[in-house]
Amino acid sequence: MTTEHRSLRSELETLTTEAFRPELAEIDTLPTLDIARLMNGEDAAVAGAVALRLPQISAAIDGIAARMAQGGRLVYAGAGTAGRLGILDASECPPTFNTRPGQVVGVIAGGPSAMVTSVEGAEDSAELARTDIDTLGIGPADSVVGVSASGRTPYAVGAVEHARALGALTVGLSCNAGSALAAAAEHGIEVVVGPELLTGSTRLKAGTAQKLVLNMLSTITMIRLGKTYGNLMVDVRASNEKLRARSRRIVALATGAPDDEIEAALTATDGEVKPAVLVILAGVDGPTAARLLEESGGHLRAALTATGG
């Protein structure tokens, strides 16, 4: 064993996410239902671990939202499972919140092919992370979230360090206390979920914790940016029949208007939900609704207030 391998092994042995649990050493001999109960019990503890970090999560969201309100982007950077979760969250923002292309981005060590196959050595390259950050043209208006269960992945740490040097807001999301990733970021979020059911398999509890936090970062940021009206997705992009039906339902829930009035409003706004709601509630035409929303920075509630609605 080389000195480098020996050092890495010693480092991994100190990580909570890599800890071995002797009490589960014979899990493979248990009935399937017992294993399922064990796993379900493990997962039940994840939300509580996230709850302990809500102040840090909220502070990060406020910082991200402030920059995005000025035209900045939200970028997730990670390797393996962490990188895939970031790309998943980013890819769901355009249909859910009608975000602009490139407004929320996920980058993964090794590039797009790493979404489905392992790219050897990519996660160990801080230089690769710096290249990816430079390719995006990251600057002071942007926010970069490094995601790594261990909190030591060179790609995630390198992305955050370089982005911070470029003036971007940075967030480090990990599942170990005292992580290099959290230390490198302006906002460190360490959700300690404990050792995994399968030793070192951080796609389990750690992955679930990361998904919960990423859900919060994107969703609450979009709420702060006026992408919702109450708990309705008024910026939803109706790109298929299911979403067109959802658009009509959202307008109905927001306004209580009859179907014919909803259809007329959506026609007047080219199918866009937010201005259609304004057309109905404020009694204005489509172009006026669009102008009022632009003047209010896209916030429907503020546009309604401006019309006395």
Measured as a percent range, the helix fraction is 40-55%
**Rg estimate, integer Å:** 22 Å
Distance between the termini: 72 Å
Inertia-based shape: globular
Counting copies of identical and different chains, the oligomeric state is single chain
**Strand pairing plus helix content: what structural class?**
alpha/beta
Secondary structure blueprint with pairings:
Blueprint: H1 3-12, H2 32-44, H3 46-51, H4 54-68, E1 74-78, H5 80-91, H6 93-97, E2 104-108, H7 126-136, E3 143-147, H8 154-165, E4 169-174, H9 180-184, E5 187-190, H10 205-224, H11 241-255, H12 259-268, H13 273-282, H14 286-295, H15 300-306
Parallel strand pairs: 1-2, 1-3, 3-4, 4-5
Helix pairs in contact: 4-10, 5-10, 7-8, 11-13, 12-13, 13-14, 14-15
Which features does this protein show?
309 residues, 5-stranded parallel beta sheet, single chain, alpha/beta, 15 helices
Explain this structure to me?
The protein has 309 residues and is α/β, with parallel strands linked by helices. It is built from 15 helices and five strands. The chain has a five-stranded parallel beta sheet, with helices on both faces. Helix 7 crosses helix 8 (154-165), helix 13 (273-282) packs across helix 14 and helix 14 packs across helix 15 (300-306). It is globular, with a radius of gyration of 22 Å.
